Amino acid sequence: FTLNSSCFLAFSQLAEKYGPIYTLHIGTRRVVVLHGYNIMKEALIDHGDNFMDRGILPMFGDVAKGHGLIFSSGERWKQHRRFTLTTLRNFGMGKRSVEERVQEEAQCLVEELRKTKGQPTDPTFILSCAPCNVICSILFRDRFKYNDEKFLHLMNLLNENFRLVNEPWIQLYNFLPAFGTYLPGEHKRILKINEELKDFILERVKEHQKVLDPNNPQDYIDCYLSKMQQEKDNPSLNLTWKI
């Protein structure tokens, strides 16, 4: 959830009174607070394996149902993380590396900025397009032109999602999910947006299935589909469509 400066000060004051580890109850959730560099290092670095799991907020639980790389936890998340790191590392061996994709996008970004001919312009949207396009290149093989209608629709969905996640009503829903029926519809809007995002990705997954060559994967989706085929009879592997 989002904290403003006064919250950080309040947490610091509580740490002075109760020590570097203390517990708060925020809505229906019990939250353990670690305060200070030393205790954070001890937990996340020295004992990182023991603190690897993450709690799932209700809003994100509604979206992903515990699947995927970002919103899963436990053994499922570890498997996805291990697979993703291996896949990204292999992209630097005989295939277009992540670095090459970043360099290509940086060049496209520079060309797009040159079109302004030195006139004052708001670069916010273009600067957000560039990293999104790098991710699309890794996932889908190809980048999008900045004026591509499908890409613009994707960017609008993502920007709207990020805006809604920081809305006060969403924060309230995450800590008092039982009242979701009575809250304004922002959380329902997020669910609708994520269905559109899933449709966008599923369309590309189907395109990849038609031309998939397991011996020559070109992007993350190719690698994922190949892995699913290899491990389809392995009940201990939790690869799902929610990538």
From TrEMBL:
Class of the enzyme per the UniProt entry, highest EC level: oxidoreductase
Protein name: unspecific monooxygenase
UniProt feature coiled coil, ranges: none
Superkingdom of the source species: Eukaryota
GO biological process: organic acid metabolic process; xenobiotic metabolic process
Any one of the GO CC terms: endoplasmic reticulum membrane
Cofactor: heme
Keyword Iron: yes
